[in-house]
Design goal:
This protein is mainly β. The chain has two domains: about 90 residues, no CATH class; about 30 residues, no CATH class. Helices cover about 15% and strands about 40% of the residues. It contains two helices and ten strands; from the N terminus they run βββββββαβββα. The protein has a four-stranded mixed β-sheet, with helices on one face. Strands 1-2 form a two-stranded antiparallel sheet. The chain is flat and about 55 Å long.
C-alpha cells in the first residue's frame, strides 16, 4: 500500500493483485490473484482486503479498507467498473442479523442463522 499527498488530496494506492499464499506449493506462490473484494452487508458496503488461502483452496474476507455509502445497485456497478468481485452476506429471516458462515433454510426457503435454527428446533 502506498499513501501520499498529491496537492490537496490524500491518494491511497492499493495493489489490485497479490501473490498466492501456498507454502505447500512454491510454484503456485508465483501466481497472482485478487487482493480486494466488494462486500455488501445488509445496508453497509465497502471494499475489503481478500486473504488468499490457496493451501486450503479457499479465500477469506479480511479487513475493511474503504467504506462506501452508495445505494446497493450503485455499489454493485462500482465493483463491476473496478473489475472487483463482490459478495452479499445473507440476512437471517428470523433475527435479521448478518450471517457470516453456514446457515440453514426455513420452510419458506429463507436463510436462518445457527442460533435461530437451534431455538426453532
Amino acid at each position: 500500500m502506498n499513501i501520499k499527498k498529491v496537492k490537496n488530496k490524500i491518494v491511497i494506492e492499493i495493489p489490485f493483485l497479490q501473490h498466492r499464499n501456498n507454502p505447500y506449493d512454491p510454484e503456485e506462490e508465483k501466481e497472482l490473484t485478487h487482493n480486494l473484494i466488494g462486500v455488501v452487508n445488509d445496508d453497509e458496503q465497502g471494499i475489503y482486503q481478500l486473504n488468499d488461502l490457496s493451501y486450503k483452496d479457499d479465500q477469506q474476507v479480511g479487513g475493511l479498507l474503504v467504506r462506501t455509502y452508495l445505494e446497493k445497485p450503485d455499489f454493485i456497478k462500482l465493483c463491476k467498473d473496478l473489475e472487483l468481485d463482490y459478495i452479499e452476506y445473507p440476512i437471517c429471516a428470523t433475527c435479521h442479523k448478518t450471517i457470516y458462515g453456514c446457515h440453514s433454510i426455513d420452510d419458506k426457503i429463507e436463510p436462518i442463522c445457527d442460533t435461530c435454527d437451534k431455538l426453532l428446533n
